[in-house]
């Protein structure tokens, strides 16, 4: 989850999020170097008293300021495209979950299990227990197994929503009448929080997303208990 006064990203909990963090650092270093270089040139131009009235053009300088930005853009574009393909890659998922956005809650359906589905509402502030987080806790968590490829089918019942969990590097729009899909692998056990990232109405900020990653045997026990209760 995010913390007060946090400046950076949340800790990565999936391989894709680790790649996104590395790309962010890579791009930030390039931006920092460009900013320092431009500031240095501006400072020299402002403070220097040297002028050259006879210099009309320089093909060498024009070649440099054309080729160098092109090389920088390539250095940024190649890893960016690589991550885009990694995010779109969905190979043989172990589990498929359908997430439906409603005003204003999420419903989850485990399509590999018959009759395994539930609605997930935010827990009101007055009902929170010690240790739970305000505006982030849900009465039913989306439980997944650790180290297993999970495919999430995302759609909406009424208006636009967006299913986003920053720690897992996942953000997918929920569009009424359309089925979008995304995939991720939780690399460690834990509870990961997200929120609807599309302004969907008056209670937009009150439909959190809670993903709980557990070992496979715990997930099997949890699913068995839910099916028995159903």
Walk me through the structure.
This protein has 230 residues and is an alpha+beta fold. It has helices spanning 15-47, 59-88, 216-229; strands spanning 95-102, 105-110, 117-120, 142-145, 150-156, 161-165, 170-174, 180-184, 190-195, 208-214. A 5-stranded mixed β-sheet has the order 3-2-1-5-8, with no helix packed on it. The two termini are 31 Å apart. Belongs to the cytochrome c oxidase subunit 2 family.
What is the chain-wise order of helices and strands?
A: HHEEEEEEEEEEH
Tell me the strand percentage band: 15-25%
Shape: elongated
Distance between the termini: 31 Å
Strand order of the largest sheet: 3-2-1-5-8
- The number of distinct β-strands equals 10
Q: For the record, what CATH class of the largest domain applies?
A: Mainly Beta
Mean pLDDT: 90
Largest sheet: 5 strands, mixed
What would you report as the Rg, rounded to the nearest angstrom?
Answer: 24 Å
Task: Describe this structure in a few short sentences.
This protein is α+β, with helices and mostly antiparallel strands and 230 residues long. It is 33% helix and 25% strand.
Write the layout of secondary structure elements.
Blueprint: H1 15-47, H2 59-88, E1 95-102, E2 105-110, E3 117-120, E4 142-145, E5 150-156, E6 161-165, E7 170-174, E8 180-184, E9 190-195, E10 208-214, H3 216-229
Parallel strand pairs: 1-5, 4-10
Antiparallel strand pairs: 1-2, 2-3, 5-8, 6-7, 9-10
Helix pairs in contact: 1-2
């Amino acid at each position: 989850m995010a913390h007060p006064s946090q400046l950076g990203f949340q800790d990565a909990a999936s391989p894709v999020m680790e790649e996104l963090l590395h790309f962010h650092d890579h791009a930030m270093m390039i931006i920092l170097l460009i900013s320092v270089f431009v500031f240095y040139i501006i400072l020299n131009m402002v403070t220097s008293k040297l002028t050259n009235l006879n210099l009309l053009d320089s093909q060498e300088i024009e070649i440099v300021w054309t080729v160098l930005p092109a090389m920088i853009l390539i250095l940024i574009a190649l890893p960016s495209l690589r991550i885009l393909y990694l995010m779109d890659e969905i190979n043989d998922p172990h589990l498929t979950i359908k997430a439906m956005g409603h005003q204003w809650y999420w419903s989850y359906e485990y399509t590999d299990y018959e009759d395994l589905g539930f609605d997930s509402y935010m827990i009101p502030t007055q009902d929170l227990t010690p240790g739970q987080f305000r505006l982030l806790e849900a009465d039913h968590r989306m439980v997944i197994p650790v180290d297993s490829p999970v495919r999430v089918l995302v759609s909406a019942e009424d208006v636009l929503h967006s299913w986003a969990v920053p720690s897992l590097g996942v953000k997918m729009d929920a569009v009424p009448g359309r089925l979008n899909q995304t995939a991720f692998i939780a690399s460690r056990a834990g509870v990961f929080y997200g929120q609807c990232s599309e302004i969907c109405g008056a209670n937009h900020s009150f439909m959190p997303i809670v993903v709980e990653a557990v070992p496979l045997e715990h997930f099997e026990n949890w699913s068995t208990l839910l099916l028995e209760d159903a």
